[in-house]
Amino acid sequence: MNRVAREHNRIIRHNMALPPGTPVYIGDRPAQEMELSIISYNARSAEIKHVSSIDELLAYKNDSKKAWINISGLKDVDAIKRLGEFYDIHTLTIEDILYTEQQPKAEAFEGYGFLSIKTIQQERKFIKNKAKKKKFFAFFKKKEEPQPDEFIIDQVSMIIMKNVLITFQEIRGDSFDGIRKRILDDVGGVRKKGMDYLAYMIIDAVVDEYFLALNNLENAIEDFEERATKTADDTFIEELQDTKKYLLQIRRAIAPLIDNILFTRHEQFFHTAELQPFLQDLRDHLNHAMITLEHHREWLSSIMEVNLSVLSHQMNKVMKVLATISTIFIPLTFVGGVYGMNFEFMPELTFKYGYFIVLGGMGLIAFGMIIFFKIRHWF
Predict the structure, then answer these.
(1) What is the pLDDT of residue 247?
(2) On the chain, which terminus has fewer CB atoms closer than 10 Å, C or N?
(3) What is the phi/psi pair of residue 350, to 5°?
(4) Rounded (to 5) percent helix, strand, coil in the chain
(5) Do residues 222 and 348 share a domain?
(6) Are residue 316 and residue 268 in the same domain, yes or no?
(7) Is the pTM of this model over 0.85?
(8) For the chain, what is the domain count?
């Protein structure tokens, strides 16, 4: 067990002894330093600011403008707790924000709604280089030190209020720059829409990341399919298993969105009537992602079976060669055993050319058996 895993288990054991609602960061990577930004806007204007303190965000609670507050990095637990107290966020919600390993969930409280979802970030496309591939699959074993080619699973928590949306991200860097640009440029009249529409756009961007991850995994699986009949490398099965584990992680991110958030509880968070067609489209995308994911899992299982069949066939070929050699040597061993007995009266032992005749006979037997096996196509 590595150092991060031991520290993670220690924090969980410590948190078990604390009362409910106690804010403690629990995650599978070290908490990052906090970065704060805010976009305040109305129908006429919008501006983005990067601030250095939670105190600078408190003034936006009663502002007439709409505000999207984004907090990246959850290291400063006290600052997050202070923000929660000012915006009347329940302590159980703060606990859920800091517990980044739980499944996506949705809860409605008086004055706000809480959503947590999982994002999948990726620096570069899947590279079909064996060395790079090993680095990618090492992600599952050493997630605290992600490499540029790796997928990184991050929790995004959203507090949806009337005029304020607060997002908490586990790590810095996201795929929401397009949303920020749409707000700043007022593309599609987004400034006139409510905070539920902004929350929808964030979820939609996250779902797009799911498809990007699945498409790149599909490229990797195609590479596995090409290698399945050509490789006997011991790491091949391990790579397949790691990919299946990763697909399971994606499934854990998608399934709660379909089952709990977008189907049963969407009316608690998305009140605008014009959002309903968009939510239906989002559900269709998620269902398609689930079907694609299950197809990929079955595809990997099929590839694994093919590779195991190839390995078994190769083993059978080796065993056939060994069995052929053993079969050829059985009569030769018998002849050698007969003439290796130390009886006093064996007429052949006194024959001048007996040794050469026995060797020639043994050679003929071996040659005859090889011809016979060849005629029967046994090798």
Answers:
(1) 87
(2) N
(3) -95, -5
(4) 60, 15, 25
(5) no
(6) no
(7) no
(8) 2
